[in-house]
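Sharing in case it's useful to others searching the archive later.

Someone asked me privately for the predicted structure of Rhodanese domain-containing protein, so I'm posting the question and my answer publicly. Question first, with the sequence:
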Amino acid sequence: MLKVIQQPEKVIIDVRNPEEVKSTGKIPSSINIPLNNVQNALATMSEEEFKKKFQRPKPSSSDELIFYCQSGRRSTEALDRALKLGYTKSKTYLGSWNDWSSRQQ
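And my answer, the predicted structure tokens:
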């Protein structure tokens, strides 16, 4: 994951709630799109709305999306939603935040 955060063409998406992100932190370069908002952000939000809200261009269906949450359950749900929307290069960070934070100790 350390290599991934240095690759701006890969979009790391934290699907936890904003309160969780505030209390624990986040993976550098990730954007926070809570699970309940993933479908709207990827399917219906305009390029302009997305950039305004997340300070980065809206990913295209050919971009690699990497989802994470606290332990992996919600990121798996987000992955399923993204794949159904045609984001075929999407995947999850299997260890999610629990793995990342333990490696930063």
